[in-house]
Predict the structure.
Amino acid sequence: MKLGPVLMLALLAAASGAAEPPSNAGHQPPIQTVTPPAPAGTPPASVQWLYGSGEAVGASMTAYRAFQNYAVAAVRHRPRDSVVLASDATLRTPRFVPCGRKPLAVVLDVDETALLNIGYEYDQAAQKRSYNPERWSDWERTGLPDTETVPGVFLALRAIRAAGIKVIFISNRSLENVAYTELALDRAYLGPARHLKELFVEGDAPGGSAKDPRRALIASRYCVVAMAGDQLGDFTDLFNSNGDSPPARRSMAKGLHISQLWGNGWFVLPNPVYGTGVKGNFYDVFPSDRWTDTVGGQ
Amino acid sequence: MKLGPVLMLALLAAASGAAEPPSNAGHQPPIQTVTPPAPAGTPPASVQWLYGSGEAVGASMTAYRAFQNYAVAAVRHRPRDSVVLASDATLRTPRFVPCGRKPLAVVLDVDETALLNIGYEYDQAAQKRSYNPERWSDWERTGLPDTETVPGVFLALRAIRAAGIKVIFISNRSLENVAYTELALDRAYLGPARHLKELFVEGDAPGGSAKDPRRALIASRYCVVAMAGDQLGDFTDLFNSNGDSPPARRSMAKGLHISQLWGNGWFVLPNPVYGTGVKGNFYDVFPSDRWTDTVGGQ
């Protein structure tokens, strides 16, 4: 869904003293009400696909329908273990945190999993800019009107909550801007997302951007029945343990034990635009299979 | 899985007179046994992600696990209708072909749904080439050793067949090269894929590249319980009826009725590299939500 003018007004109301104002409202920038003209040319293929295509709508909804079905089924058949790996697990010997009698929860990432950062990615593509932490922080504070939800997430979370399952977000958005992130999720109808209750950001547990400590914290309180994310690090930091090359990471994801988890507790949303999946030179991406034709020409 | 040297030998054996030789074996080019050196630089983000990342493995397996679960469940709860739209359906008033007492089947696309055309996309990216039908035809004939399977498809099809469900492929590969396509699917352990039995290519029914006539043919013989593809045209040609703009196609995919089908009979594999999902200028991809920052700089 689009967070349009009505929500912009709601944001203004909130920022000016209503129910849940951002704590650092003094930094509140002017709300943009004019859509600027776009440059000539075309965005990269990955951006065209993720933000502009019906195909990406179908792919995201395919993943979210599976996430919802899997989570809701856990209410009838309560699992013995969380889908969060135990601290002594490896990718070859996965072990999971036991559920005990803890209440059920699902855990999901925010950016390009729950929220599509359309305005930010427009700016990067249109201005041919690379990532800049100051600009990203600006986006966390001002991006709400130009944010949409990932197709399928709203209905999935509604069904999951209706089944009595807690919904918890883990994001690497900043602690400084956490009130804005709470508001963004709430105004996108994906909340409640209260900090340290249903929303954990970078700095809420040790480990920096690594999410295992936050997952461990949540799995100590909840039986986590499903997780969703667009990066392998949204499932376990073991994928990121050695600065591994793309072919090594691809092999890890295809491994005998880990491959059982995709669509079966761990649900991946497609994101070809940024992150650990968008790496590598020609040797990394095509370690073999380097065909050439017999036709020639362009 | 990788179709390595052993399969290359199998291909050679087949092409030289064994069980299922390609009918046009006279065109057989030399089998490549040397992997050529790659150029400097990096492939586009979409190519890095789809062919090189663990994230794409997880996303594809997420979709295939859902496809498998959905199809196999239809054996216990036989549906009244196929998931193939009836000839008088529209996207706003979807109606489906009745199942009657027909046997169960699933229908899926081939390229970037069942097979990853890694070698071909390497060549396109490395040589900065655009699509060329003569080169693609060369690939259909010689690409087998540099083809891999989409992660998840092998186990999904095995489980679906074990449940007693027929697996049928619809591809826009050429009629001329159909024996090579049969062989490619067979050697990837995705067969049987015999022409006009489990494999329908362009020209097997009227309509050219449009797939509705082939879907109608299959739905007249089978109760189609699930379909998988990477392009919206793998589900219905109605998405392609008007040369629609990217925002119009995205709206169609999100429509009230059609959105119920994603992950619920229609399963989308991610493909940000080519096709109808990779279109549009900045106005198409970002019809609104064109944020700019307050930071400036690069």
